[in-house]
Amino acid sequence: MAKASEERSMTSRIAKRLFHTGLLALALGLAGCEVKSNPTQEESIPGTPRLPEVAKMDIQADGPGLGKAVYTKWCSICHSDGPGYPGTVALTERYKGTEISGVLLKRTDLDPDFIKGVVRGGLFNMPNFRKTEISDAELDALANYLASSK
């Protein structure tokens, strides 16, 4: 009986030591780790394609170039002329077999009210833009710019 009690005591001590050793190893392992909740693009997973950055520019509240400035900052990243622009690619595919261009700046059929509705509500894969991103004045200028950019 004493032998069984001794064995249980020995097993208990070994289990405690293993448990504490495991905790120590875990603590040391975590101490060497730096956890970031929001890594930058430079720190992202290798091989992941970089997303293009929105043009960094200040848009003036008024002026003759406001529509173009809004287009350059918010729209050109997806809707410029060329194969690498997802908005242009999608519109080109959508209007394949018609006279309508997939390039926004080459469109002759765009109505300012339609442009405003698409910008505020989004369409297909295009996201909507809130008033905190594109103000009403900026949207008016953008809609007029695109409607007259034939």
Helix fraction, binned, reads 40-55%
Please trace the helix and strand order, writing H or E for each element.
Answer: HHHHH
Secondary structure tally: strands:
0
Largest sheet: none
What is the SS-derived class?
Answer: mainly alpha
Strand content: under 5%
CATH architect. name of the largest domain? Orthogonal Bundle
Say what the CATH topology of the largest domain is. Cytochrome Bc1 Complex, Chain D, domain 2
CATH class of the largest domain: Mainly Alpha
Q: Count every helix, treating DSSP H or I runs of 4 or more residues as helices.
A: 5
Give the overall average pLDDT: 79
Distance between the termini: 99 Å
Structural domain count? 2
**CATH superfamily of the largest domain, please?**
Cytochrome c-like domain
Low-confidence stretches: none
**Gyration radius over CA:** 30 Å
Shape from CA axes?
rod-shaped
Q: Please, could you describe this protein's structure?
A:
The chain has 150 residues and is an all-alpha fold. It contains 5 helices and no strands. Helix 2 packs across helix 5 and helix 4 packs across helix 5. It is rod-shaped and about 100 Å long.
Brief descriptors of the model:
single chain; 150 residues; mainly alpha; Cytochrome Bc1 Complex, Chain D, domain 2; 2 domains; rod-shaped; electron transfer activity
